[in-house]
Write a structure and sequence with these properties.
With 82 residues, the protein is mainly β. The protein is built from no helices and 5 strands. The N terminus is likely disordered. This is Cold shock-like protein cspG.
């Protein structure tokens, strides 16, 4: 009997990462994440935050996310609190 495994696939060349919210402005709906691996800060927009309800992040909050190249540098996608 064959075994079926569901695999979650990400978009083109996205990689999972973890980091800490450096700051997030609720009024403007964006902020930055400091990467745990020491790379450049990553831009995060409220639309990239997963979940229902009001989407915001708190300074110092640990998150996991995917990175993608945006028009001005790295930006976060599929952001989840950890």
């Amino acid at each position: 009997m064959p075994i079926t495994v569901d695999v979650e696939k990400s978009g083109d060349n996205m990689s999972k990462a973890t980091g800490t919210v450096k700051w997030f402005n609720e009024e403007k709906g964006f902020g930055f994440i400091t990467q745990d691996n020491g790379g450049a800060d990553v831009f995060v927009h409220f639309r990239a935050i997963t979940g229902d309800g009001f989407k915001t992040l708190a300074e110092g909050q640990k998150v996991s996310y995917e990175t993608e190249q945006g028009p001005k540098g790295l930006q976060a996608a599929n952001v989840e609190a950890i």
